[in-house]
Design goal:
Layout (H helix, E strand, L loop, with lengths): L12 H12 L5 E8 L9 E2 L3 H9 L5 H8 L4 H8 L6 E4 L5 E2 L6 E6 H6 L1 H24 L4 E4 L8 H13 L4 E2 L2 H7 L9 H5 L4 H11 L5 E3 L5 H15 L8 E4 L4 H14 L6 E4 L5 H9 L6 E4 L1 H4 L9 E8 L2 E2 L14 E7 L5 E8 L8 E2 L2 E5 L2 E2 L6 H13 L16 E3 L1 H14 L4
Parallel strand pairs: 6-7, 6-11, 8-9, 9-10, 10-11, 15-19
Antiparallel strand pairs: 1-5, 1-12, 2-4, 3-5, 3-17, 12-13, 14-15, 14-16, 17-18
Length: about 450
């Protein structure tokens, strides 16, 4: 059976129709494609590069099974099938490392490979980089709003499919979240997992106090109790009574969770009840249709909440559900190429991005330049990751990538860390790149 996640048929049909023509016309020279984002989504001041690891895994393992070839053989001629039988990605990958903060018109990935190969992988590469970058960028906003709080991805159940739920857990952790409620993501990516109980657990018992005690005795090392099924403040008082009862067995209540109502007011009331009952070390965790704006409001109201579960708004990036990104041909057969479509023109050639920092080690400006013979001051952001289909760098742990992202946040100018749009970050196009574009314009565009 075809694997729906790794299958090379996870592509648009035109990738195969173009491939057929390339083969028939012997168009097999080296092509250079770059992926970039044209503009920031509303309210965003930067983006977080994510998804490269999944792209590298996809390219490393790319091949066609007999079942896939049999299906294609009903639609394409034998010479295409013979080519695909031997297909392995043999190209190079250059990219910004995951966790890098980046801006519009900066290439975050470059594929250099024979034209049929580079074209065939387009849709899945966009699919992976687009989604994880989208979610990591959304998650970054909550991390910056609540940098010292426990933040947990709660969104798998409303994500747009199983893979989306898993990759959202990965991308949010890379962006600085503390962990996820999705168990499979914990096993796949070594992400810390968090969970409490559902309202149904409380309702299944004859009383709230009985439910609390059963759970505490089953989970003595991590007792977090959901207290808003009926009356939140009354439940908090029951927690205090239970804590006194459990002392004899050395079981402590680690915390409580709020999931509805006026979270700030409930948190203040519950904090007082817990403190008066001697549970000053028990935490308060909140969930329930939260996003970065609600986090900001709760913290501004000085709500005594120690952690947050963020679900639907995160996993579907509810306020900005897509990035205006593109994977475009920039060079073929050693000749720079440029697209001129209205509102979608591209900068030709292979490119590098150089970043300057100010005296306080904050981001100052970026320059997009030609990769060759166009050096610029600053740190080059694009690095080699694959040559001739083989990795050049060892796989980094997700924890290391998360650390890189958090370091990037500390280098942001203060104005860019808020939820409102800041002045646009300076991204300059080098003189040499502008000159190359002008040269191509003279060659291909009709005279005015």
């Amino acid at each position: 059976m075809m694997n729906p996640i790794s299958s090379p048929l996870l592509a648009d049909l035109y990738q195969f129709t173009m491939l057929q023509t390339y083969l028939e016309q012997e168009m097999n020279e080296i092509a250079v494609f770059e992926l970039f984002v044209r503009k920031l989504p509303p309210g965003r001041n930067f983006m977080v590069a994510a998804g490269l690891e999944q792209v590298l895994e996809f390219l490393e393992n790319l091949h066609f099974t007999a079942e896939e070839l049999d299906w294609l053989a009903t639609r394409f001629p034998p010479h295409v099938i013979r080519y695909l039988e031997q297909f392995r990605f043999a190209g190079d990958v250059y990219a910004m490392p995951e966790g890098t903060l980046f801006f519009p018109n900066e290439p975050i990935l470059r594929i250099t490979a024979p034209l049929p190969q580079a074209q065939l992988v387009e849709s899945r590469i966009i699919n992976l980089l687009h989604f994880e970058t989208l979610i990591a960028t959304k998650a970054a906003r909550s991390v910056l709003v609540a940098p010292d709080k426990l933040l947990v991805d709660f969104g798998m159940r409303r994500a747009h499919g199983a893979e989306a739920g898993l990759l959202a857990a990965r991308a949010s952790y890379l962006a600085g979240f503390s962990g996820t409620a999705t168990v499979l993501a914990g096993t796949m990516y070594d992400i810390p997992t968090f969970g409490t109980m559902a309202h149904s657990f409380i309702q299944a018992h004859s009383s709230e106090s009985e439910a609390f005690e059963h759970f505490a005795r089953s989970h003595p090392d991590n007792t977090i109790l959901l207290i808003d099924t009926y009356d939140t403040e009354a439940a908090a008082a029951k927690v205090v009574a239970l804590a006194n009862k459990l002392q004899a067995d050395n079981i402590r209540i680690n915390g409580v969770r709020l999931d509805s109502g006026d979270l700030a007011q409930h948190a203040r009331n519950v904090r007082r009840i817990l403190d008066d009952g001697g549970l000053r070390d028990s935490t308060i965790f909140a969930s329930g249709n939260l996003d970065e704006y609600k986090l900001h409001a709760l913290l501004a109201a000085q709500a005594p909440i120690d952690g947050f579960g963020i679900g639907t708004a995160l996993d579907i990036s509810i306020d900005a559900p897509a990035l205006d990104c593109a994977y475009k041909l920039q060079e073929y057969a050693d000749i720079p190429r440029r697209k001129y479509s209205e509102g979608k023109a591209t900068w030709p050639g292979r490119k590098q991005v150089y970043r300057l920092y100010d005296a306080d080690d904050c981001l100052q400006s970026d320059t997009v330049a030609l990769e060759r013979d166009d050096p610029q001051p600053g740190e080059p952001l694009i690095q080699p990751f694959m040559h001739a289909g083989r990795r050049l760098q060892p796989k980094l742990s997700l924890h290391a990538l998360r650390s890189r992202t958090l370091t990037g946040y500390r280098r942001l100018p203060a104005a860019m860390t808020g939820l409102e749009s800041a002045p646009a970050y300076p991204v300059t196009i080098s003189d040499a790149l502008k000159a190359l574009a002008a040269q191509i314009d003279r060659q291909y565009l009709p005279e005015a």
